[in-house]
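ok so i was messing around last nite and threw this chain in just to see what happens. nothing serious, just curious
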Amino acid sequence: MTTGDKVACASSADEACPTAGTRNDAADHVDAGAGRVNRLADDLAALEGQGRALLSIEGLWCPSCAAATERLLRDTPGVHDARVSFIGSAALLRWDPDRTTLAALAAAVRRLGYRLAPPDNRRTTAERLDGEIRALSVRLTVAAFFGVWTMLFSLLIYLGVGEHSGGAVGWWLALASVSFALPAILFAGRPILVAGWRTLRTGVPGMDTLVGLGVLAAAGLSTWQLVRGVEHVYADTAVMLVVLLTVGRLLEARALRRAAATIDALHARLPEVATRLDADGATETVAAESVRIGERIRVAAGERVPLDGRLSRGETRIDRAVMTGESRPAAARVGDTVLAGSVNLERGIVIEVTAVIGEREIDRIGEQVMETVRARPGTQRLADRVARWIAPIAIGLAALTVLIGQLAGLPIEDTLLRATSVLVVACPCAVSIAVPIAYVSLAGRAADQGVLFRDAGTLER
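result:
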């Protein structure tokens, strides 16, 4: 982001609320909560007049979640523009300070189930993804463990075990199948169900909405069958949908983690300090992040360049292998551009800084690579768009199926089964799971080998 597009960050109103606790703990939170309120008020007072802020947004589960949040913000009176990035978990907001406030926008996002917060620059992308992978792994383990038992009992029912016992054994097998499915659905499937509801509520349903509808329909019909004393349940279908989608999300997160590790490794090789020159030519060693555009820094022979800049004094040869892959050093003269990550090979030089940390070429490449890995392929983007109108159509067709079945005099269980089949079939599992797995696996493997794609379309072609 260029210097002309200055942005600011602020805590959300959500941070101003003390954590709920017991009566005995309540008093302990008052001071902390008041402090957060005061800090929030100070932040908002400094930002309201600017009408622009770049914030992290926590809790995004899928691209549809980002689309729903973006639509909510854009529909808020007083908001000129809102761009929510699922890849970066960030929101860039532009608003009219006379018509709305940042606190009101944070409250609107919180009602949707997400949270605006300052970007956490202390943690690398790889560290954040590690937490996501751990959470997904736990959910998948729970879903797989209970799913195995669910399918085992369902298999016994399909094989006809208990048919000669008057249905008593079969009903208990069905009860066991549904009971083991509940932890998988309620714990492992919770993010899917929550994301599906949030996106449906804002009018931008996606894959999670369709899968969530299929899960709820199968689980609901199974419960109805148990209440009626019927042994034919479909809990295994609900668990299967949860497991498949969770596997896809986990593989996607792991591929993104490998790419993030590659980018973090590049950044780890960059100097954290720089030798800054003042107007009199005196030098001072400072943190690289404190250097501003237009200031001059000295880079001694053998040192790595910390910031992008223009060579203002001296001539040398530089090794640009980190940035370009070139095996031979290149000559650098006054006026030439020198990129962060390059190594000064011959003699000391002075560079006028043209890009600070976060705006360097290596930073832009890293962001673009991460976007490439996490971007949806064309087939997936098409499926996401189709899902926005398939969800209401599937619900309508399911309701129509129930109506026609009842008018035709079919038993209620047959009608509900057919309606459930409509919702389950509407889940585009092949597109929502198989395509992303193949896509991110390729991108992740390439990142492991040091190959970084800057164009998402290249992978698909």
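not much to say yet. The first helix runs from residue 23 to 47.
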